[in-house]
Amino acid sequence: MASVNLEMPPMEYETRTGMQEAELNAVKGQMGSKTRGVSLTWNDLWVTVSTRKSGRKAILQGLTGYARPSELLAVMGPSGCGKSTFLDALAGRLDFSTRQSGDILINGHKQKLSYGTSAYLTQDETLLATLTVKEAVYYSAQLQLPDSMTKSEKIQIAEQTIKEMGLQDAMNTRIGGWGNKGISGGEKRRLSICMEILTRPKLLFLDEPTSGLDSAASYYVMSGISRQKEGRTIIASIHQPSAEVFNLFHSLCLLSSGRIVYFGPASAAIQFFARNGFPCPTLQNPSDHFLKTINKDFDEDIEQGSAGRIPTEEVIDLLVNSYKSSEEYHEVQNQVAEICQQGGEILEKRSHANFTTQSLVLTRRSSVNMFRDLGYYWMRFATYVAIALGLGSIYYDLGSNYRSIEERGLMVAFVVSFMTFMTVGGFPSFVEDMKVFQRENLNGHYGCCTFVIGNTLSSIPYLLLISFVPGAIAYLLSGFQNGFGHFIYFALVLFTSMMIVESLMMNVAAIVPNFLMGIVAGAGIQGLQILSGGYFQLPSELPNPIWKYPLYYMSFHKYAYQGMFKNEFEGLKFTDDLFGNNRTMSGEDILRERWEAEMAYSKWIDLAILVSTLILYRLVFLLIIKTNEKVVHARKASTSVLSNRSSQIMANSLPASPLH
Questions:
Q1: Which of 78, 136, 389, 417 is the most exposed place for a label (fewest CB within 10 A)?
Q2: Can you say whether the dihedral through the CA atoms of 70, 353, 511, 128 is positive or negative?
């Protein structure tokens, strides 16, 4: 691979970007002038989790250290040593099942990490596969950067950030995903980083950014990260870096079973191990040597110079105790105290695009994704057209005899029950949208309301298309009641019912993120609503407990059935030719006697109830994701208030066993 020129500092915009000097100064003013950065310290940091057997189990045990501006701190250790938990603790992302104690200070102060001041890159790549690299960064820039900046300035910052991460050659390539080839794994990691550094955060957390990449891709990802360090504090957990990647680190925090084995300059770690009788063999990767020495998963004895081979557990204890009595440990204590005494600025939350701008950008981005993702709506559209042709051919030209009464009822039931039921087919695509939302919302890119508005507005045109085109085919071929108004009502009920089912599945996705379990749960809920809707068992025959009260009145199918029945039967006359008496029956009589429709109100009331149900379902979805958002913020607030009493309790915790 060719080397990537990433020499341009992140806050400098050279004249070759095409910006005039006045524009350059304006952008710098909006993004914030370059400061001395953020210093992060943690002292006696403990994290425990509750267990059924032993009460509480220590994951992190008394960690002390620091991270300074313009430096890259690497957190290394075997699997299950607590690397991700450590990053989550520093970033305020621990869940409520954990308990944290100790001091985490930013520039010597206890303060929250506000939007724009920090960014967190998780191990999982949650990106919209249908977008190109350029589109993904452009949309992210429009969401994150403030409205005080013009659109052209946002585009220039996006393009500059793409170049800084070496993605200029892949700008017009789609990201790709399952079944669609796109950019490489290393490029996806760099793209994820690119979208998080648009606001020029002063503190950057990276959770295993090289996981799953080969050595060459890992090097280019980490070299790109290293070149972003100017004025920025970077903390990255990394599993097993190559020698080239290891040379990029300034400082190294080596963990084993939640304890610090070594903290200090990365270049001095080799001497520390050699001093304790575990020298790194010639021509061997230092990181391989470190991890092999402190990994007790395989319970192999380690050779310690002339002392022979000793168990790994004893090696770890020896190194931990040696570190605590070493000059490196005292230097860390001195650095932490010095940084806290120096203090620094209080980080302030930066502004981003306003509510209207974010709603429009999310609507546009979601529309593009829905248009390009064949599984979102287009496959459903093709399936609906085929089913509509089938319905129209089976129930072709129904007429007005006695048999047509049942056939009209069957067709209405199929449309309301099964054509809306098939809306669950878009659930996997929406789950992917939810993953992107959860990442971007957690990082403060936008709020819950804008996401709900954007998703709702972008889906309306596609659902209208699916409702009106297949609906027209089935309606005209079957010979339903003439009149444009009757058809419009039929299509509107179908459209609203589909929107309700989508809203139902959105609620399921917010609670059950696994798409297989979500489809089962959503299908089960719909099945109960169909059974209690008043068609497969007439309302008077439904058992009163549960099925009629409350399920019958809660099921949106009740109002869809009755609205469509009224729309189809009111005003029509039917001939009872079953026994040759040729008695004429009115549609109103059929509605009362055969379908037990509630004739006290019109079909428009049924449609209004359906629309109200749709709004209610969307509001419930908003409430669920808003509650989740509040829980996350409450979690961050609770982890920032640290208790000395908790510290004393956790100090007595037993040594943690490796987590897997």
A1: 389
A2: negative
The answer to whether residues 204 and 119 touch, using CB atoms and an 8 Å cutoff, is yes
Please list, in sequence order, all residues whose beta carbon lies within 8 angstroms of the beta carbon of residue 596, skipping any fewer than 6 positions away: 534, 538, 539, 540
Percent of the chain with pLDDT over 70: 88
What average pLDDT is seen over the chain? 85
Return d(Cα 28, Cα 191) in angstroms, integer.
Answer: 23
Query: What's the pLDDT tens digit per position in 327-368?
Result: 999 999 999 999 988 877 777 777 888 999 999 999 999 999
Q: What is the pLDDT of residues 377-390, one digit of tens each?
A: 999 999 999 999 99
User: Which amino acid appears at position 582 of this protein?
Assistant: N
Nearest residue to 366 via CA among 289, 291, 435, 433: 433
Could you tell me if 415 and 466 are in contact, meaning their C-beta atoms sit under 8 angstroms apart?
no
Tell me how crowded residue 553 is: count the other CB atoms within 10 A of its CB: 13
For 75, the enclosing helix (H) or strand (E) is: strand 71-76
Longest dimension (CA), the chain: 111
Q: Residue 269 half-sphere exposure, CB side, CA atoms within 13 Å?
A: 28
Note the helical H segments in 443-483.
448-478
DSSP states of 514-547 = -HHHHHHHHHHHHHHHHHTSSSSS-GGGS-TEET
| pLDDT at residue number 143 | 94
Predicted TM-score (pTM) of this structure:
0.84
Task: Say which amino acid occupies 615.
Answer: I
Enumerate the β-bridge partners of residue 545: 549
Beta-strand relationship, 545-546 and 549-550: parallel
Confidence tier at 306 by pLDDT (50, 70, 90): very low
Structure tokens at 422: 């098939």
What's the confidence (pLDDT) of residue 283?
83
Dihedral through CA 600, CA 601, CA 603, CA 606, nearest 10?
A: -110
pLDDT (0 to 100) of residue 600: 94
Strand-pairing partners, residue 50, are 56
Q: Which residues, in sequence order, are CB contacts of 581 under 8 Å at separation 6+?
A: none
